[in-house]
Design brief:
The complex is a heterodimer of chains A (169) and B (149).
Chain A: H1 2-31, E1 55-64, E2 70-77, E3 83-91, E4 98-103, E5 121-126, E6 134-137, E7 149-154, E8 159-165, E9 167-168
Antiparallel strand pairs in A: 1-2, 1-8, 1-9, 2-3, 3-6, 4-5, 4-7, 7-8
Chain B: H1 2-30, E1 35-41, E2 50-57, E3 63-71, E4 78-83, E5 101-106, E6 114-118, E7 129-134, E8 139-145, E9 147-148
The chains are: A alpha+beta (169), B alpha+beta (149).
């Protein structure tokens, strides 16, 4: 009698295992929980050999503040260790004494249309035109980690025409 | 008569010169330069996703999607797709919403730079967002809305 009941118990265990193990395997296959901490790293080269061309380092879209401003601002590595800003599909209002400058995205002044006092900025030059693609040389020493925004800035009225926050390309 | 022949020769020479010019011009315009068409950055909260998606056009006209500084969660059956939308929410379910998709392939790795071929004839004006999509659970790991570069 005792032997009978123990064999019944072990058979029940076998049935449980027969159902439980496939369910566990199925659940593992479905969710693959180990992938939560196992990474798969790849490192493919760029799709075309463009190493001779200027490489974009940073890019961002211009957003209008005091005046409607649109287009893209990109920083390129242009050889000789130099960097240049290029504006593409660019359009803003025409105005007096409008400059292209770099400023810090954390600067509260950039969230307003007008700057109180002086804007902590790096001068890149007078805006060449209020429409069209254009390039500006960057000073050799500029820290793009700190000055990470391109600002179209009217010095005369301290008006922020537009801002582009630069992000790594 | 001699003058007539001379004029004919001069005309022929001019025609040949024009023809040569036309053919070199055609060759120049036929050669396409590799260029960057669109770019955007990933957002994704539920499954932390970050990095940049850029669409390049190769010299032969082929479109390639390249992911750089890329990072997402690892997961089962994760694909890279283009969706016919301006952007996608973190909880977007493209199957439920019947959003048109273009399959670019299985995600090669959840970290690092990687390239995916885009099928010929894909309308980039329509498919404006890259999504890292877990097909098994219809989960949008992350999305990158693309803008003209």
């Amino acid at each position: 009698m005792v032997a009978d009941s123990s064999s019944w118990l072990s058979r029940k265990k076998w049935i449980l295992a027969g159902i439980g193990v496939p369910v566990l395997v199925g659940a593992w296959w479905l969710f693959r929980p180990e992938k939560l901490w196992i990474n798969k790293q790849v490192n493919e080269a760029a799709p075309f050999a463009s190493s001779s061309d200027s490489q974009p380092l940073y890019t961002g879209l211009l957003i209008g503040k005091a005046h409607p401003t649109s287009g893209r601002a990109s920083i390129y590595q242009v050889g000789g260790g130099k960097e240049a800003l290029r504006l593409t599909d660019f359009a803003t209002s025409n105005g007096p004494d409008v400059h292209v400058v770099l400023a810090q995205s954390a600067d509260q002044n950039l969230s307003n249309e007008f700057v109180k006092g002086d804007l902590d900025s790096v001068e890149l030059g007078l805006l060449k035109a209020n429409q069209g693609d254009q390039n500006y040389d960057l000073p050799a020493s500029v820290d793009l980690g700190k000055y990470d925004s391109v600002v179209i800035y009217c010095e005369r009225f301290h008006a922020v025409f537009g801002v582009a926050k630069l992000e790594r390309f | 008569m001699v003058r007539g022949i001379n004029v004919a020769i001069a005309l022929a020479a001019m025609l040949v010169a024009l023809g040569l010019q036309a053919s070199t011009y055609a060759q120049e315009s036929g050669k396409q330069q590799a260029k960057t068409l669109e770019t955007g950055t990933f957002h994704g909260k539920v499954h932390q996703t970050s990095g940049r998606a850029t669409i390049h056009q190769e010299e032969n006209g082929k479109l390639v999607l390249r992911l750089t500084n890329f990072k997402t969660s690892n997961g089962p059956d994760v694909h890279v797709i283009l969706v016919a939308a301006k952007d996608a929410d973190d909880d977007a379910n493209f199957l439920k919403s019947n959003t048109e998709r273009v399959e670019l392939g299985k995600l090669k790795g959840n970290q690092g730079d990687q390239n995916y071929e885009i099928p010929d004839g894909t309308d980039l004006g329509k498919f404006q967002t890259v999504s890292i999509y877990c097909e098994r659970f219809d989960a949008n790991f992350g999305a990158a809305p693309l803008q003209k570069f």
